[in-house]
TrEMBL record, chain A:
<feature type="transmembrane region" description="Helical">
    <location>
        <begin position="106"/>
        <end position="127"/>
    </location>
</feature>
<keyword id="KW-0813">Transport</keyword>
<comment type="similarity">
    <text>Belongs to the binding-protein-dependent transport system permease family.</text>
</comment>
<dbReference type="InterPro" id="IPR000515">
    <property type="entry name" value="MetI-like"/>
</dbReference>
<dbReference type="InterPro" id="IPR035906">
    <property type="entry name" value="MetI-like_sf"/>
</dbReference>
<protein>
    <submittedName>
        <fullName>Sugar ABC transporter permease</fullName>
    </submittedName>
</protein>
<feature type="transmembrane region" description="Helical">
    <location>
        <begin position="265"/>
        <end position="284"/>
    </location>
</feature>
<keyword id="KW-0812">Transmembrane</keyword>
<feature type="domain" description="ABC transmembrane type-1">
    <location>
        <begin position="69"/>
        <end position="283"/>
    </location>
</feature>
Automatic annotation (TrEMBL), chain B:
<feature type="transmembrane region" description="Helical">
    <location>
        <begin position="14"/>
        <end position="34"/>
    </location>
</feature>
<feature type="transmembrane region" description="Helical">
    <location>
        <begin position="188"/>
        <end position="213"/>
    </location>
</feature>
<keyword id="KW-0812">Transmembrane</keyword>
<dbReference type="Pfam" id="PF00528">
    <property type="entry name" value="BPD_transp_1"/>
</dbReference>
<protein>
    <submittedName>
        <fullName>Carbohydrate ABC transporter permease</fullName>
    </submittedName>
</protein>
<dbReference type="InterPro" id="IPR050901">
    <property type="entry name" value="BP-dep_ABC_trans_perm"/>
</dbReference>
<dbReference type="InterPro" id="IPR035906">
    <property type="entry name" value="MetI-like_sf"/>
</dbReference>
<keyword id="KW-0762">Sugar transport</keyword>
<keyword id="KW-0472">Membrane</keyword>
Length: 293, 282
């Protein structure tokens, strides 16, 4: 490699890299350090002591930590499955030939671009017991006989946040699957028809297998981005009622900024990061096999 | 699109109707937000709320335009300052980085790309506390700089990844001929490559803008002065001290979604292509 090329690549790449090192790299390192000390609101200005892995050990006996981990996992898996199925059905519909296809498909994107704060409040209102339109619709269709306590009852609140997040995530799934569908050559289907394949055969024998790479990376990305959910929960339920929707991220935030146990909050955030990092590594391995690098 | 035969036309009509119905059902929450913002308080809590606003009132909008600390106009301006600054910082840093990673061979290239990819996947709760302490030491808590700097950490890696694929897709011959005409690496980049990459740059910039526009947690954590809060933090705080006056909250919501709708109308097709190229979700 020529020396000038190395010089230029540094000049181009380093400013962004240095920025991220200061604003992301250093904080990540600090968070790790924080989790090995016992920093709280009392000693933050003084001299906190090094306590090694005690914070991590304490988490093992913390019921809310386990509850939040379980919740995060359930929430992530259910959101991904629902978004994926609905996104797939819509993608199949919108990849048909009709005049409004592109326009309407684009319109659906709005739900993905909106500030999550606004989406969260919108759903909070629709799910509410007083004047909530969702119960009104369900009752007028005779699907339920009395108003459902969506956000007040611990056994329903998880569904409420999952439904809201599914609404946000559907367009992303739809767009990526639609793009995948357009890459499948038409003549594959035609020759299958000649061989006597029906619609079901075509879907399971051609569409799904050919979409597999796109689907895998869609699901892994979906996992990564859903697992770190924060804003939506803070707005709709704030983790309640009685921790029914507490997630790792909201639990970490509460420890740090409500109870001011900064080290304990940092510890939970690090566990969240380790899980995401392992999944990301899997994803990177996957995409680097295909092209990206 | 042209539909010639009779069956084709019928097919088209049926699919249009089905798709239209589904889209309407899907976008109902947005409609409901607008309707609620126009209803008087009493109509909102009726036993059977009406699907159309029977008595339209604009008070939810007008009363909040001139309120004391937390008014819509003020919050809107704050959001604009934060989002535009974030967009500028993120784009200015990301463009050259993306170009560098697309065009030059360096021994660290793979590692750098990996770093940008991983940064996109970080949970905000991981860097929130340390950033809070860092900003406190830098004395920029309670200034717009704090959320701007934090929001750019999401925009930069995202922009680098979309723009890199964009630069790779541009023909290399353009650069070679510019070099022959006497351009050096910088002038080739500025005068030849950057202008052609404008569609990619627009998508990257818009995403950085939208991330910052939608951010709640950085603004809430780093800014404690009500008069400096952006729209998202403004609406959130409304929940706390107003009881729940849904028409006011929804009016705030409608106003904060306006830029999203506008951006969407103008560059819809770029967004879709940018999304599929970058394949990343915030």
């Amino acid at each position: 490699m020529r020396l000038s090329e190395r010089f230029y690549s540094n000049v181009f790449i380093l400013p962004a890299l240095i920025y991220l090192l200061i604003m992301v790299g250093y904080p990540m390192f600090e968070n790790l350090r924080l989790s090995l000390y016992n920093v709280d609101v009392m000693n933050i200005a003084g001299t906190p002591s090094f306590i090694g892995l005690s914070n991590y050990r304490a988490l093992l006996h913390d019921d809310i930590f386990w509850k939040s981990t379980y919740n995060t996992l359930i929430y992530t898996v259910l959101c991904i499955v629902l978004q994926f199925i609905i996104g797939f059905v819509l993608a199949l519909l919108f990849s048909q030939k009709f005049s409004l296809a592109e326009r309407l498909r684009g319109l659906v994107m709005i739900s993905w671009l909106m500030p999550i704060t606004v989406t969260g409040l919108m759903f909070k209102f629709m799910f509410s017991l007083n004047g909530g339109i969702l119960n009104e619709i369900l009752m007028s269709l005779h699907l339920v006989h009395q108003p459902v306590e969506w956000l007040v009852n611990p056994s329903n609140s998880m569904w409420a946040v999952i439904i809201a997040n599914t609404w946000i995530g559907v367009p992303f799934n739809m767009i990526l699957i639609t793009t995948g569908l357009t890459t499948i050559p038409k003549d594959v289907y035609e020759s299958a028809s000649i061989d006597g394949a029906n619609a079901m055969d075509k879907f399971f024998r051609i569409t799904l297998p050919l979409l597999k790479p796109a689907i895998t990376s869609l699901l892994v990305l979906g996992f990564i981005y859903t697992f770190k959910v924060f804003d939506l929960i803070v707005i709709m339920t704030n983790g309640g009622p009685v921790n029914a929707t507490e997630m790792m991220s909201t639990f970490s935030y509460k420890l740090s900024f409500v109870e001011y146990k900064f080290s304990e909050g940092a510890t939970v955030a690090n566990v969240l990061f380790i899980i995401l990092f392992l999944v990301s590594l899997g994803y990177l391995k996957l995409v680097s096999k295909e092209e990206v690098m | 699109m042209q539909f010639h035969t009779k069956t084709e036309r019928r097919h088209n009509r049926v699919l249009n109707t089905v798709a239209l119905l589904i889209t309407c059902a899907f976008l109902f929450p947005l409609y409901w937000m607008v309707v609620t913002s126009l209803k008087p308080e009493a109509d909102i809590f009726l036993a059977h709320p009406s699907y159309f606003p029977e008595h339209i009132q604009w008070a939810s909008y007008t009363s909040q335009l001139i309120g004391a600390n937390n008014n819509i106009l003020h919050s809107f301006v704050n959001s604009a300052i934060i989002s535009v600054s974030t967009m500028v910082i993120a784009t200015v840093l990301a463009i050259p980085a993306a170009y560098g990673l697309a065009r030059f061979q360096t021994p660290w290239k793979k590692l750098f790309i990996l770093l940008f990819l991983v940064t996109q996947m970080l949970p905000s709760s991981l860097i929130l506390t340390p950033l809070f302490i860092e900003f406190k030491n830098l004395h920029i808590l309670n200034t717009f700089w704090a959320p701007i700097f934090a929001d750019a950490t999401i925009g930069i890696p995202f922009s680098v990844m979309i723009l890199r694929t964009y630069f790779i897709s541009l023909p290399k011959e353009l650069e070679d001929s510019a070099k022959i005409d006497g351009c050096n690496t910088f002038t080739t980049f500025l005068r030849i490559m950057l202008p052609i990459a404008i569609p990619g740059v627009v998508v990257a910039a818009v995403f950085s803008f939208l991330y910052a526009w939608g951010d709640l947690i950085y603004a809430l954590t780093f800014i404690s002065k009500p008069e400096m809060r952006p729209v998202t933090a403004g609406i959130y705080n409304f929940l706390g001290y107003q009881g729940i006056s849904w028409n006011n909250i929804m009016a705030f919501g409608v106003v904060s979604v306006l830029p999203v709708i506008l951006i969407f109308i103008f560059i819809q097709k770029y967004i879709v292509s940018g999304l599929t190229n970058g394949a990343v979700k915030g």
